[in-house]
Amino acid sequence: MECNAKLLYHKKAVYKSGIAGEGHWFHINNEKIYDDLIGLGLTPKKSLTLKFPEIPPIFVRHFIRGCWDGDGSFYYEKAKGTFGASYLSGSLEFIEGMLAELYKAGLSKQTIYKSKTAAVYYFRLRGQQCIQLYEYLYDSVPESQYLTRKHDLIERFILEQGRSKLTPQQKEAKWRDIYDKYYAKKDAGS
């Protein structure tokens, strides 16, 4: 495209919905490129108008994993002692489409919530549902095809809860690998 757009960077990006981590972006102000992108199916304000695409069934879980790497999260609720997962989107139709696919894959039906502070929709999973999601997203998928930070967080929960299909020796090896990647570095710095 012979683009000479300047790459911009913010250490912390501030949005109406809160503060996000660092970010990179660029602007292209070219009418022909804009028209070409619209012709390919992109829309203005896509975050609000996006529809879940028709995807051959064999690729759906890979598409959802990519979406989850971007807009999904895994978290631990310390006060409740539970692990959870959530996904958010500005498009209700996109969320509905994703949940329909997750339902087909065996997850139970979920409630869709609308944020009171921002124009976003979201759903949450807890406990066993997180394990089902983990298996759906990551089973037999090479490490090069997912965001390891998110994968390792949910895997750590599963290992700690003893709900993994791995043998005790495999669990120990996985836990050591996770520890080496994230915690050994932290311990060395303190």
Instruction: State the shape.
Output: globular
Give the beta-strand count.
8
Radius of gyration: 19 Å
Largest sheet: 4 strands, antiparallel
Order of helices and strands: EEEEHHHEEHEEHHH
Tell me what the CATH architecture of the largest domain is: Roll
**CATH fold-level label of the largest domain:** Endonuclease I-creI
Could you describe the 3D structure shown?
This protein is 46% helix and 18% strand. The strands form 3 sheets. The chain has a 4-stranded antiparallel β-sheet with strand order 5-6-8-7. It has 2 domains: 1-42, no CATH class; 53-189, Roll (Endonuclease I-creI). The chain is globular. Helix 5 packs across helix 6. A hairpin with a 2-residue loop joins strand 2 and strand 3. The chain is α+β, with helices and mostly antiparallel strands. The protein has helices at 31-39, 46-49, 57-71, 92-104, 128-138, 148-161, 168-189; strands at residues 8-10, 13-15, 18-20, 23-25, 72-77, 82-89, 113-114, 121-126. The model has no long low-confidence stretch (mean pLDDT 80). The chain contains 7 helices and 8 strands.
